[in-house]
Amino acid sequence: MSDIVVRIAARGDGVTASGRHVAFAAPGDVVAEDGSVTAGPHRQVPPCRHFPECGGCQLQHVDDEAYAAYLVERVSGALAQHDLTGDVRAPHLSPPRTRRRATLRAMKAGGRVLLGFNAEKSNRIIDLAECHILRPELFALLDPLRRLLGLLLAPKRTAEIHLTLADQGVDLLLKGVKADGFEAAQGLVDFAGEQGLARLSLDEGVGPEVRWEPQPATATLSGRPVPLPIAAFLQATEDGERALVDSVLEAVGTPATSADLFAGIGTFALALPGRVLAAEAGRGAVLALKRAAPSIAAQHRDLYRRPLMADELNGLDAVVLDPPRSGAEAQVEQLAASTVPRIAYVSCNPATFARDAAVLVSGGYRLDWVRPVGQFRWSTHVELAAAFSR
Ligand SMILES: C[S@@+](CC[C@H](N)C(=O)[O-])C[C@H]1O[C@@H](n2cnc3c(N)ncnc32)[C@H](O)[C@@H]1O
């Protein structure tokens, strides 16, 4: 008997009605008893020649409707694990070629430089001849970088290439690359000038050292240029950032006083009306935010060890939090014990989000809605913004 693929599992496999996992199957595909698969209406031709070897994308074989349904199911599934239900809205999907931040790997092998993402579940580097997720400004640097690394990389050595699009151009950090001596140092400066880079830094294992930055690099957030620390967090796409900021503003309303926790360089703090307290563990990020917006009370604080306590939170009209993948266990316990009327929770991990949501709900909060955001298009990475109130 044939079996129909009904959903996509967390890691990207198709799952049939009878529970069979089938690699690269899309919802609606029909799986015969002998394992052969007939493509259904949600199958699409993967746009990139490197799919599925390249680890940058896992879901190019499904159409946008199936990708959106996958994002919704990942969030509802995580909530169901904690007996929670909620209004999971239609996701925002970032268009192709909008990713403005990426980490690639490079290696010199057989006299040439391979440069790209790791292969799926492997350390092998996929030498990218095309990429449908990176912004064209980032992709355009790949060939020039191959030539530069051909001069700087020792055979068989690997390097990490961090690319971020700043206001002034590409901010490039090379990790694991040495540029000793006059010729190499001058070569780096010439490369940065020719490519119109915003900044070029090298990390030889003892922290980043800037080699080129003709003007201070900035990222404009909510219309305000913020000094951009090297390798600072920035939302992966500009439209994803807008979708998250709009969701946060809808969740919190117009607070007179609020806190932005895990604030980074201020993606949400700078968008919030009224008086804002921001807390963040990265010293460079806190200093950048203070410089861009002196009126924001920015605190350098480790919120895992020293969360804002309930009595510090009480009296605020709203709290925004956007923790790393491990979530914000200690901080949500304090929030659950607080009287803050509105919370916007931004997350890059549905599992830890659902765990933390359960703590808030058991503290008396209502989960009003969740909006998934697919800013890592075609990957299994899910982001979301959620609204809680009491
Ligand atoms: C997902 S990013 C969000 C940043 C910011 N909200 C944004 O959207 O640009 C998470 C932030 O949490 C910070 N962080 C990580 N661990 C932390 C901790 N223990 N206490 C406070 N902040 C932490 C990171 O430095 C990072 O800036």
TrEMBL record:
<protein>
    <submittedName>
        <fullName>23S rRNA (Uracil1939-C5)-methyltransferase</fullName>
        <ecNumber>2.1.1.190</ecNumber>
    </submittedName>
</protein>
<feature type="binding site">
    <location>
        <position position="235"/>
    </location>
    <ligand>
        <name>S-adenosyl-L-methionine</name>
    </ligand>
</feature>
<keyword id="KW-0489">Methyltransferase</keyword>
<dbReference type="InterPro" id="IPR010280">
    <property type="entry name" value="U5_MeTrfase_fam"/>
</dbReference>
<keyword id="KW-0949">S-adenosyl-L-methionine</keyword>
<keyword id="KW-0808">Transferase</keyword>
<feature type="binding site">
    <location>
        <position position="322"/>
    </location>
    <ligand>
        <name>S-adenosyl-L-methionine</name>
    </ligand>
</feature>
<dbReference type="Pfam" id="PF05958">
    <property type="entry name" value="tRNA_U5-meth_tr"/>
</dbReference>
<dbReference type="InterPro" id="IPR030390">
    <property type="entry name" value="MeTrfase_TrmA_AS"/>
</dbReference>
<feature type="binding site">
    <location>
        <position position="262"/>
    </location>
    <ligand>
        <name>S-adenosyl-L-methionine</name>
    </ligand>
</feature>
<feature type="active site">
    <location>
        <position position="348"/>
    </location>
</feature>
<dbReference type="GO" id="GO:0070041">
    <property type="term" value="F:rRNA (uridine-C5-)-methyltransferase activity"/>
</dbReference>
<dbReference type="GO" id="GO:0070475">
    <property type="term" value="P:rRNA base methylation"/>
</dbReference>
<dbReference type="InterPro" id="IPR029063">
    <property type="entry name" value="SAM-dependent_MTases_sf"/>
</dbReference>
<feature type="active site" description="Nucleophile">
    <location>
        <position position="348"/>
    </location>
</feature>
<comment type="similarity">
    <text>Belongs to the class I-like SAM-binding methyltransferase superfamily. RNA M5U methyltransferase family.</text>
</comment>
